Hints:
Elements: E1 3-4, E2 9-11, E3 32-37, E4 40-42, E5 46-54, E6 61-64, E7 69-77, H1 82-101, H2 109-116, H3 120-134, E8 146-154, E9 161-168, E10 177-182, E11 186-188, E12 200-201, E13 206-211, E14 217-224, E15 229-235, E16 253-258, E17 264-268, E18 278-282, E19 287-295, E20 305-311, E21 315-320, E22 323-325, E23 329-337, E24 343-347, E25 357-363, E26 369-377, E27 380-383, E28 395-397, E29 401-406, E30 413-418, E31 422-429, E32 439-444, E33 450-454, E34 472-477, E35 482-488, E36 498-504, E37 509-515, E38 518-522, E39 526-536, E40 543-547, E41 555-557, E42 560-561, E43 567-573, E44 583-585, E45 587-592, E46 600-613, E47 617-622, E48 626-631, E49 640-643, E50 649-651, E51 656-663, E52 673-679, E53 683-689, E54 695-701, E55 711-722, E56 736-742, E57 746-750
Parallel strand pairs: 4-10, 11-13, 12-14, 22-26, 27-29, 28-30, 37-46, 38-48, 50-57
Antiparallel strand pairs: 1-44, 2-6, 3-5, 5-8, 6-9, 7-8, 9-10, 13-20, 14-19, 15-18, 15-20, 16-17, 16-19, 21-23, 23-24, 25-26, 29-36, 30-35, 31-34, 31-36, 32-33, 32-35, 37-39, 39-43, 40-42, 40-45, 41-43, 44-48, 45-46, 46-47, 49-51, 51-54, 52-55, 53-54, 55-56, 55-57
Helix pairs in contact: 1-2
Amino acid sequence: MSRSKNVWLYSVAIGIIGFSFTTAQLDAQDPHVAYVFPAGCRLDTTCKVVLGGQHIKDASEVHISGVGVKAEIVSWYRPMSRGMYNQLRMRLADIREELVEKGNKKPSKADVAFAAGVSDEELSEMEIYLARERDPKRQPNDQLAEELTLRLTVSADAKLGKRELRLVTESAMSNPLWIQIGKWPEVSETEPNDTIPNAIIDQMPIVINGQIFPGDTDSFSFNARQGQKLVIEVGARDVIPFLADAVPGWFQATLALTDSSGKEVSYSDSFYYRQDPVVYFEVPSDGRYTFHIRDSVYRGREDFVYRITLGELPFVTSVFPLGARYGTKVNVELQGWNLTDTTFETQLMSRRKFRPVEWCSLEQGDGESVRFPLHVDLLTDVFDEEPNNTIDTSQEVTTRVNVHGRIDTPGDQDVYFIKGQGKLVAEILARRQGSPLDSQLTLTNIDGKEIAFNDDHEDKGQGLQTHHSDSVLEAFIPSSGAYLHVSDTQHNGGKDFVYRLSLRASEPDYEIRVTPGTIVARAGAITPITVFALRRDNYQEDIELALLDAPPGFELSGGIIPGNADRVSLTLKVPSTAPEEPVLLDMITRGRRGRGNRAWLTHPAIPAENMVQAFITYHLVPVEDWTVIVSGKPRTQVPFEVVNKSTRLNLPLKKEFLLNVKPLVKNIAADELRVDVKEPKGVTAEIITGRMGQFAIKLTVNPEEATPGLSGNLLLRAFQETTPAPTEENPNPKPRRTDYGFLPAIPFKIAEHSR
């Protein structure tokens, strides 16, 4: 059975998706969405939002994940370009000159425009262009130039939280952006409001939407009563996590709160590990207060979008413990502001439904709920026992446990004595789950001599993490035992400084991310996807990939990540008959526990989007579901198939390799067929023909470009190239291409040496 949900493409115009594609295939003309403003809408309302981007004029549909939100395209707009403005300006100047020479000494603007054939709309656009050029807060950027206005209709029972929004054209789908569905009233800023707010906020809770331009500060005033406990929470990175062409690679917001005299009473440029600021303010006296938001280094442009939530709202600052063993009950203690319920008992998921993080929700007395993550795994849980901050008071622990503790006060440390002998991996989970702890681990022998130390360790599975502050230490424990010291590198501490310390032997393992998180393909198409292996503790085994309980017509090819690879491209074939609704697929993976070990590790592949930060840094950001949208009539299929008897091609260096093919169409013109190699680099392909209409694909490996020993999947794209007969009007016609799309991925290995 298909695990489908009522997720759909809300059609806003007549359009048919013409080709298969994924984010990995996006070219220079594919739609790109840079921002959405405002970045959210309230339940049971209709609102307009503007999408800024490039190549979005031809969008025919809008995809919004989940149910309860419909979208309609209202209008497209692009301001006049510099080139177009100069052309019109020069034409108007020339016509004015001609009119003067003909005796009209002072031709009116309307007369000149009429004579030049320039419309009133073009004149208006010229004025808009001049105003934008003279605005010091605007910086021209083609990636933000186009604007698409949408009308969103949100039902009263729509699920609260983030939704994925994408634009669809006839040939491609845009990158995803998030919109927020909320329950509170929403307003948007109006300029000018740099120092003096132009309106007073007269209700709470409320959501304020805005944009920051170069050198800009936005200010908002509100009246507050003594004793109110207000939370002012900024969503900036929470709206757009990464900016591909900005340094730092996101909108780094700062928030300052001042009283009626202009005195600063609170300030935030982040909250613990989060880059977005949060202010908690207990109002000391009745009066008017103002908060100011800007970028930390006064950058800005249209995609510096923010959402600010203001009110006496619950906010979680820490969770303890940070998780527990699969399938167990766990009692959770919450710390935070405006919380009426701070304890929570929940039954964690079974191992069969493995996800390393489970999100929980706890309703507060005012009906508002707070959400928080819990980490789940297979180790037994124990808790630290104070006092344990010295060697003399150290707590004795065994391996293969998770120790849950706190750095209770500034300068505190927790010390654990580990008995036994052997290789140990000690790993802190803190910053990755919201704790402010910047951990460090120090391992000493019984004489106090340092054996090993670690401060920071990068976890590539944390797509939104940019400062990897959790520690991982690997060392050998002597027979006499060792002491493990847990502390904060900045000597900070407090109730929120919680951690989970995992003590285990070296256990090679892995996690899998599959991109893109959403695929749009024409019926019957074969489309490439990319799978990333996040290997732990030197895991070097092959990893097998397969679809889990997929509906008929979905098929993976090339489903193995070689043991020496961290990523592989493979292909997904979709049904030739389009399902009525998008399908949510699951990918299951398995790999041997070790060389010669018959036992298997089994994990699901987690869908993700590959987001770029600051030009070159990529992040795998997990999404909720792996969604496939099949649309349109079946595309023209490749007129041949590869006949490959081996499970993996062994491609020799400096020699040719022939792939046999089987024609699927009678009387096919083999000399018109072409193939391109999309992966790997250093391999080329061409169709060669023989007698009786037979043909094959010749593969050639260039030893100067290819990597000897490289394993992966061969991705071939097929097309037909025909040249029309010359005519008198067109004596040299250009060839025409019919694109058949991708062939199923073919596993390969390049020989280590040439023979």
